[in-house]
Each structure stands twice: as structure tokens, then as C-alpha cells.
Amino acid sequence: MRFESELATAFSSCNTFHTFEKYAELLSPELIKQGFKQAGVATIRKRRLPLETVLWSIIGMALYRQKSVWDIATQMDIMLPDKKPLVAPSALVQARQRLGADAVKEVFKVMAQHGYESNQFETWAGLNLLAVDGVVWRVADTAENHKVFETQSNQHRENIYPQIRMVCHMEITSHQLINSVFSGYRTNEMKLAEGLIETTPDNTLTIFDKGYYSLGLLNRWHQAGEQRHWMIPARKDLNYDVIQSLGKNDKRIRLTTTPQARKKFNDLPEHIEARLVSKKIKGKEYRILTSMVDPIRFPSEEMVELYRYRWEIELGYREMKQSLLNSAYTLRSKRPDMIEQELWGLLLCYNLIRQGMTAAARKLNSTWPNQLSFTSCSMAITQFFATLPLSSPGNIPKHYEALLTQMTYFKLPERREERQYPRWVKAKPQRYPRNTKNANQLN
């Protein structure tokens, strides 16, 4: 009987702490207020569902992919106390519309900036390592989404599902996102990348994919702050003049810009200086173009090897799509404004998990946060959310420290450098089963 009475006490106590401040260890309420203020959203605490609690329900949409928003709000216990234990599902829909997408966007940006500035990451030659790349998200097949986001099309047909093109800026040793921009599918990725220049931190090296070769973009990226360097694979048809030979496979070069580029970027000079470094790896030559022209501070032997870390941002996209969204074909929201809100909530949730993994990695020696298993850590954080309503506010810091200690056990084995995954085109699955029988066999 003692166990039954203690169990009844535990379950009855879970209804006494209906306050979102219990999640302060993961996301400070001050950061939420700052984001809401920047978005021009006023917080109204007299409602049963204040905007802060609605924000947590949107974060929960990424953690609990298989559950409805109503079930998420109930499980996370984020509603303020009232005579009625539950709220109507329509109230959650209205609360999401009242919050909007801009508020979640500003909270993400405030949290991302705070997470970057409050942590120390592994550096190379005094520079933090960043990466920029794009990703595509499918959304529900509706006429409104087709109009707002557009679809992929060619000369033969148009894709069924509308798509969103997103470009993210990521710190590659921790996989923490610094910023993100997205628009309709037919928006150029280099155009989206221009929206990341202003928030790029100083003393950083950003690694680009070869598709981002634009002297106007790269020059503005380098000139926008102090020591904002870039690195990108050199094109095969690259035209340049050698200014100085720094070694057998190391040259300081001059690149001539086109009149079209100078018209688009009014701050682009006629010539810009760069550095071209080449290296043979397993019989294949790789060439890297970079703004790091100082041969003493930036040794050429390490530059080409450094470029392989660009793939970390691709792993981050896989973590979002496979682990958080459970490999779902489309996002769950249907309206364009709610789709944008869901996407910002997904990025916010991903950064919360990654910042927790960064804090856990500090407990280990010589371990980067990206060496911990994202799937296992996200499951631990999901379990933490599930058991949090049973905890008193005073014990939450202790449980959070136990969560960080638990995540240190999920260290991944060393990556095998000899593994190769060549790209190949998979056949698109058919919507209907194939008929393998002829007419005689069907009768």
C-alpha cells in the first residue's frame, strides 16, 4: 500500500507545476522575451496558453513527430492551471496563429547568437570553423503552397509537392546553427546566402560548396567584418594571374571580376586577391581557393584536408530529417505561415539539442560535440521532457546535470577514413504496383 500511495502522490503532483519556467535550463525565459520583443509580439499571461507555452509546443512538434499538437501540449504539461485540465485542440491552433512565425524566428536567432557567443569551440589557426550549404524541404500539396513556395519542374513535368529552399550557417565542430534563411524553391542559394553575411561572426573560416562560387558574394563576405575568411573548391576553368608563388602547389593569385558581377555588387573591385592551393590525394588533384593569403599563419599543407569538414553540415541536415522528423516525406503543417513557423521551431529544437550536447562534451576531455550520437542524445532529451512534469522546480537543475552526464555515454567510435560512399541515382518509387501479368494470366 505504501508504494501505491507514493505513486498516487507522484501523479497528483504532476498537475501542480504547470509553468514553462521549468524549461529554463534548456532555454532561458529572458531569451524568449528578447526574441518576442524583437518580433513585436506582446506576451499575455492571463491566457490559459501564454505565448511562451505555445513556443514550447512548437518545439515539441519536432521532438514528438508522431503526436498531435494537442497531445504534445498535454504531455509537456505547459498549460497554466485552471478548473479544466485540458484545452480544446482548436485553442492550440488559434494560439499558434496568434504567435506567428516571426516570433519563433527571432527566438531562434537570439538563442543561436547566445549559444555561439557563450561557448568556446575548437579552432584552426585562431579561426572558428563554419560551413554554409543548402537543403530542400517538401510541404503539403495545396494550391496555396504551390503559389507561395513553388515546385521543381523541367521540360517534361512539374513536381507534385511544393518545396522550400533553405540555406544554413553552421559551426561544424558542434553542429550548432548560427543563422538560417529560406524562401521558395526557385530562389537561388547564393541569393539566400547573402542574407547570412550580416550575422557572420568575426575570426571565422566559412567553408562553401563549389556551387557558391561568386566573387561578389565571397568578396562581400570577407570585407563585412574582421577576419571573416572563406574557402571554396576552385573551378576547373578558373582564370587567374599569378602574383607570387609560395610553393610548388601554393600560389597567390589575382582574379578579375566581370562587369555583370560589379553591376550586381557595387562594392566589388575590378580585381581581388586570393590563394590557390592544390594537393594530390590518392592520385586525384584537389584545388582550393581561399581568402587566407598569409602563408605563415595559414599553412597550405592543412588547407585541402580542412575542406573535408564541410560535410559536417550535410550530417546536420540528415539529423534533422531522419532523427527529428522521422524521415517524413513532408512537414506536418498545411498553411504557408504555419509551415514557416514549424520550420523555425524545428531549427530551434535542433539547436537546443546541440547546445545540450555541447555542454555534455565539456565534461569529456578532447571530445567535440559532433562526436556524440545525436539520435541517442535527442532520445535522452525527449525522455527528459516526458519526466519533467513529475519533478519539482527545485530539483530540475539536478536532473539537467544528470541529463548531461547521461549524454556523455553516447560517444561515437572514431570515424574510419577509408570508408567511401560513392553517389548514385536511385530509381524513383512508383505510386502504384506494377502489373507483371499479361491478359491471359489475368483471366
UniProtKB/TrEMBL annotation:
Residues 422-443 are annotated as: Disordered. InterPro entries: RNaseH-like_sf (IPR012337), Transpos_IS4 (IPR047952), Transposase_11 (IPR002559), Transposases_IS4_N (IPR024473). One of its GO terms (biological process) is DNA transposition. Residues 19-109 form the Transposase IS4 N-terminal domain. Residues 126-352 form the Transposase IS4-like domain. GO terms for molecular function: DNA binding; transposase activity. It holds the Pfam family Nterm_IS4. Residues 433-443 have a biased composition (Polar residues). It comes from the Bacteria. This is IS4 family transposase. It comes from Litorilituus sediminis.
